[in-house]
């Protein structure tokens, strides 16, 4: 709280600058709030980009605003004759969903309280309540999910179920100031261990409280969206990276964090800046007064990043980004500056922090195919580059996407390889500056000293039914511990365990240590019974082979859910 007034002042200055310097009215009537990063529209837009129907689709950092999404929908609508029948039906669904952004109309929506429009109820966009006038818009949804799951495997043969619900409010004030709030709470019955196998639910603090039978999530922010510049403060899920599977920079595994974000876009250029509040390692301290209880201690920790992207036609996207992790002090104004070079800032601040640099490219050499690659450096040590020194810490990812391969319509095929060298994401000059939040990696979950092959096929049987199949092979070299948990050999296989001077070898061997091979097969199916009423089914098979111990563990996870967004 010590620096909260400075942060607020910076945000106000940014907003004020955009109001006076860029006062143009938006092309569309579009809302200024974002479309959540896990929305199905992004999957559709990526397909349209690879088919070269839309251009300048900057999806390396998600989410995007509703106004931006609406502009891409208009581009697709102009090329409707190039779509398959299923794609045309999907496009029609999104035109209904983004009708207000496109046409400032709600003729194809239904509001339980407020207004009712004529037409088919089943195909309409459904709201619990809406309010619209020339200055303010408000859309209120009621969210409700009924979920059942079962897991079997080593030491686990149980099931669980939960009901999760809550409100979502979004809208805009004077078109450019958007707001968003979503709160859900869930009550569960059955096994807590089954729920822990879900990457989203496992991040809930309430789930770790043994006397509770619920978990909850909240997101909310304010966002100013101008023609060129936008600024945002609040909490929402952010994905960062070009991956078709596990994002290498910011994946969807870590807990949702609060952040300040700033974006600027003009023609072929896009710039993104973000400063986020994440979590260090948790500990506890005995509190002697008045209740003789333990007090939770979590170090202050921050993630700062900025990215510049250039699009060359609709065939090439090039990006460069710089990232810094710092902790154990208050917010550093040097990393709140959206126009600076973080590495120089770090050196001027006594080089206490952990800096990263990443380069990426997406190339669409011809219609229906895309190649993408990312090179992510923890440290660039030029004299030692190319040697087996532990100081050469980097990760890279390369993949290809094909639309309608070998003539199979309404299908996406993706293949991706990821490699992470030993000691990547760790930091040996601070116990908190590793690339994680609350002991969970921010990016790809395979961790250091590991590699993976990811295969994915998505097929739309119709606009209402999509099936996705995925298979992943992970190979990793893990550190060795004795029976008491003491580290006896460090091979750089844990981002929480850095290299130790005088104890660990200067040279490293990729996949050295305890060799573990993991195989994951997944099936996801979603059927939309009617607009905004979904049935989701999922199955995961996971096998872990420890080659050093000659052991094997197999797990099966099943689930089915009814999801309502009204």
From the structure above, extract its key features.
566 residues, mainly beta, 18-stranded antiparallel beta barrel, two-stranded antiparallel sheet, 26 strands, 13% helix, 47% strand, disordered N terminus
Description:
With 566 residues, the protein is mainly beta. Helices cover 13% and strands 47% of the residues. It is built from seven helices and 26 strands. It has helices at 4-21, 41-50, 66-78, 85-97, 99-103, 192-196, 342-348; strands at 61-62, 109-113, 125-132, 137-153, 156-173, 177-190, 214-225, 229-235, 239-240, 258-266, 269-287, 293-312, 316-327, 354-363, 369-379, 393-403, 411-420, 436-437, 440-441, 450-460, 465-478, 480-481, 487-489, 514-530, 533-546, 551-565. The strands form four sheets. It has an 18-stranded antiparallel barrel. A two-stranded antiparallel sheet has the order 1-9. Strand 16 (393-403) and strand 17 (411-420) form a beta hairpin. The chain starts with a helix and ends with a strand. Mean pLDDT is 90; it is low at 1-28.
**In which range does the helix fraction lie?**
10-25%
> Which stretches are low in confidence, meaning pLDDT under 50 for 5 or more residues running?
1-28
Shape: globular
Mean pLDDT: 90
* Discrete helix count: 7
Radius of gyration: 24 Å
Indicate the proportion of strand residues: over 45%
- Got a strand count? 26
Report on the biggest sheet: 18 strands, antiparallel, barrel
Separation of the first and last Cα atoms = 37 Å
Structural class: mainly beta
């Amino acid at each position: 709280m010590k620096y909260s007034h400075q942060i607020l002042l910076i945000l106000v200055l940014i907003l004020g600058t955009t109001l006076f310097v860029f006062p143009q009215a938006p092309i569309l009537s579009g809302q200024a709030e974002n479309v959540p990063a896990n929305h199905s529209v992004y999957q559709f837009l990526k397909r349209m980009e690879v088919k070269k129907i839309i251009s300048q689709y900057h999806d390396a950092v998600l989410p995007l605003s509703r106004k931006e999404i609406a502009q891409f929908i208009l581009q697709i609508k102009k090329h409707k004759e190039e779509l398959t029948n299923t794609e045309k039906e999907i496009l029609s669904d999104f035109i209904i969903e983004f009708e207000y952004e496109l046409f400032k109309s709600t003729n194809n929506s239904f509001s339980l309280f407020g207004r009712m429009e004529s037409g088919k109820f089943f195909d309409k966009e459904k709201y619990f309540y809406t309010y619209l006038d020339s200055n303010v818009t408000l859309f209120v949804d009621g969210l409700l999910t009924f979920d059942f799951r079962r897991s079997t495997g080593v030491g686990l043969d149980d099931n669980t179920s939960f009901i999760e619900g809550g409100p979502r409010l979004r809208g805009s004030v004077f078109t450019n100031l958007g707001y968003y709030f979503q709160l859900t709470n869930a009550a569960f019955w059955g096994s807590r261990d089954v729920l822990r196998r879900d990457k989203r639910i496992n991040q809930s603090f309430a789930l770790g409280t043994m006397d509770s039978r619920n978990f909850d999530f909240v997101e909310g922010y304010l966002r100013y969206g101008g023609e060129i510049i936008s600024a945002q403060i609040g909490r929402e899920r952010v994905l960062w990276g070009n991956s078709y599977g596990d994002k290498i920079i910011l994946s969807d595994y870590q807990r949702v964090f609060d952040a300040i974000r700033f974006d600027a876009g003009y023609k072929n250029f896009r710039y993104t800046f973000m400063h986020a509040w994440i979590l260090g390692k948790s500990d506890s301290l005995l509190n002697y007064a008045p209740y003789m209880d333990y007090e939770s201690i979590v170090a202050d920790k921050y993630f700062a990043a900025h990215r510049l992207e250039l699009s060359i036609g609709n065939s090439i996207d090039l990006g460069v980004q710089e990232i810094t992790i710092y902790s154990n002090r208050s917010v550093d104004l040097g990393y709140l500056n959206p126009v600076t070079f973080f590495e120089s800032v770090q050196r001027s601040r006594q080089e206490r922090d952990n800096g990263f640099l990443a380069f990426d490219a997406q190339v669409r050499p011809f219609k229906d195919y895309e190649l993408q690659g990312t090179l992510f450096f923890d440290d660039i040590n030029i004299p030692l580059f190319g040697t087996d020194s532990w100081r050469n810490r980097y990760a890279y990812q390369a993949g290809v996407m094909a639309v309608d391969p070998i003539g199979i319509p309404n299908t996406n095929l993706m293949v991706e390889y990821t490699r992470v060298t030993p000691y990547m994401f760790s930091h040996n000059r601070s116990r908190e500056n590793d690339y994680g939040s609350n002991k969970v990696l921010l990016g790809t979950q395979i961790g250091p000293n590991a590699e993976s092959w990811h295969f994915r096929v998505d097929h739309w049987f119709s606009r209402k039914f999509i099936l996705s199949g995925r298979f992943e092979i992970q190979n990793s070299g893990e550190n060795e511990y004795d029976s008491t948990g003491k580290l006896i050999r460090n091979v750089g296989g844990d981002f929480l365990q850095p290299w130790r001077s005088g104890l660990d070898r200067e040279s490293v061997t990729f996949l050295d240590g305890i060799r573990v091979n993991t195989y994951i097969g997944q099936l996801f199916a979603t059927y939309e019974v009617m607009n905004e009423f979904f049935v989701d089914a999922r199955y995961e098979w996971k096998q872990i082979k420890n080659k050093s111990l000659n052991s094997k563990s197999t797990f099966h996870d099943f689930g089915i859910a009814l999801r309502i967004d009204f």
